[in-house]
Design brief:
The chain has a four-stranded mixed sheet with strand order 1-4-3-2, with no helix packed on it. The longest helix has 4 residues. The chain has one domain: Acid Proteases (Cathepsin D, subunit A, domain 1, Beta Barrel). The chain is mostly beta strands.
């Protein structure tokens, strides 16, 4: 999975497989498939995130995230989809 880092946010936001918006379809090979992770935990807590050009909604999740040689266990992030 590829990750586009938003340095203006304290948490990672990733598109989930149920997102049907254009922006999500453009990342179709790069969506979160939590069912394929043995370390994913759905935190069920809703997550709404405001950006300059709109809002994203979803829920919080937790998983082991590895970027290069850095591995962060139990990293909290948003699985989300843009709102109109």
């Amino acid at each position: 999975m590829s990750l586009l880092v938003d340095t203006g946010s304290a948490h990672i936001a990733v598109p989930g497989p149920s997102c049907n918006e254009d922006v999500c379809r453009s990342f179709s090979n790069h969506t979160l498939h939590s069912d394929q992770s043995s370390t994913f935990t759905n935190l069920t807590e809703e997550a709404t995130l405001g950006y300059f050009k709109g809002f994203f909604a979803g829920h919080w999740g937790q998983d082991t995230v590895t970027v290069g040689n850095l591995t962060v266990p139990e990293n909290k992030f948003r699985e989300c989809c843009p709102l109109d």
